[in-house]
């Protein structure tokens, strides 16, 4: 019987040449090993062990490097294969790679974001273009990839709760009308992003999502009025939504904004209100039709 070591070396790998070269030039790897180990110790990271329960040839090889303290190197090698999986439209493999990558380096925020985007955008788009799949199979695969994308973002935040980038990504995921929506959670996502250091401009995204939630019109109105005091927040959508909210809430006439106040003139107001009446963003349009000539 062939010795185990011989079978290991004869495993076909796309990256065998790279790994053999690195092994032969071991003296080059030592400074990198020392540098990465110092980085991990300095950051005091309590990294979980890699999960190779569903292993394959490449991950077997890279496990040797990751267990030896070169997790970042192993993750980057897996990123190359995740890119190859994208080019080959092999989404199960891409999902497996991103799970391994994020397990190796859970504090690398960019990995979680890339993993989620690969599943929610690229994998879902590929499924939708497969005409041979029936509607039911497409729905099942789309749900699986969207579930995976959501899980990447939630696990990323569990490991990096103070990351404004991850909170913004989850907010964008939750308000994405083309996929699945959770406007209530999106409000909190953007608020947490701002609390973690994201730009205050995202208060307007909080407002937009509040406007889409039935029963929270008063909260949206109060926030919208505060935002309108700052010129940078005076987008056409915010102006239109203030008109809608004051109509829905029966705001007293003396407290209402006029068309001239919001838009400068009635003609400019009509120019913005007509397309808003037919918006596809799930914004309410109560009272807009009555204002148009």
Question: Would you write up a description of this structure?
Answer:
With 293 residues, the protein is an all-alpha fold. It folds into 2 domains: 130 residues, Serine Threonine Protein Phosphatase 5, Tetratricopeptide repeat (Alpha Horseshoe), CATH 1.25.40; 87 residues, no CATH class. Helices cover 68% and strands 0% of the residues. The chain has 16 helices and no strands. α6 runs antiparallel to α7 and α9 packs antiparallel against α10. The radius of gyration is 26 Å and the shape is elongated. The N terminus is likely disordered.
Structural class call reads: mainly alpha
CATH superfamily of the largest domain: Tetratricopeptide repeat domain
CATH topology of the largest domain: Serine Threonine Protein Phosphatase 5, Tetratricopeptide repeat
Q: Tell me the distance between the termini.
A: 89 Å
CATH C-level name of the largest domain: Mainly Alpha
Taken in chain order, the helices and strands follow as HHHHHHHHHHHHHHHH
Number of domains: 2
Number of helices: 16
Query: Based on CA inertia axes, which overall geometry fits?
Result: elongated
* CATH architecture name of the largest domain: Alpha Horseshoe
Identify low-pLDDT runs.
Answer: 1-37, 39-55
Radius of gyration: 26 Å
What is the total tally of β strands?
Answer: 0
Helix proportion:
55-70%
Task: Please indicate the percent range of residues in DSSP E strands (runs of 2 or more).
Answer: under 5%
Main β-sheet description: none
Overall residue-averaged pLDDT value: 83
């Amino acid at each position: 019987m062939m010795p185990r070591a011989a079978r290991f070396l004869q495993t076909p790998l796309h990256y065998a040449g790279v790994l053999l070269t690195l092994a032969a030039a071991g003296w080059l790897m030592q400074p990198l090993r020392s540098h990465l180990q110092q980085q991990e110790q300095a950051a005091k990271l309590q990294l979980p062990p890699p999960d190779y329960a569903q292993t394959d040839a490449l991950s077997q090889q890279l496990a040797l490097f990751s267990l030896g303290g070169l997790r970042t190197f192993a993750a980057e090698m897996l990123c190359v294969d995740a890119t190859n999986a994208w080019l080959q439209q092999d989404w199960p493999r891409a999902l497996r790679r991103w799970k391994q990558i994020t397990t190796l380096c859970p504090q690398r925020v960019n990995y979680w974001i890339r993993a989620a985007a690969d599943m929610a955008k690229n994998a879902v788009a590929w499924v939708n273009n497969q005409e041979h799949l029936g509607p039911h199979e497409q729905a099942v695969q789309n749900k699986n990839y969207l579930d995976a994308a959501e899980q990447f973002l939630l696990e990323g935040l569990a490991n990096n709760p103070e990351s404004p980038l991850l909170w913004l990504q989850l907010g964008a995921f939750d308000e994405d009308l083309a996929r699945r929506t959770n406007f209530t959670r999106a409000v909190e996502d953007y608020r947490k992003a701002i609390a973690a250091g994201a730009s205050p401009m995202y208060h307007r995204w909080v407002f937009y999502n509040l406007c889409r939630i039935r029963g929270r019109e008063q909260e949206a109105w109060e926030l919208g009025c505060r935002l309108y005091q700052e010129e940078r927040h005076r987008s056409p959508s915010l102006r239109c939504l203030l008109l809608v909210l004051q109509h829905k809430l029966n705001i007293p006439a003396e407290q209402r904004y006029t068309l001239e106040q919001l838009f400068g003139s009635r003609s400019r107001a009509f120019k913005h209100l007509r397309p808003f009446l037919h918006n596809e963003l799930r914004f309410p349009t109560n009272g807009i039709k009555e204002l148009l000539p």
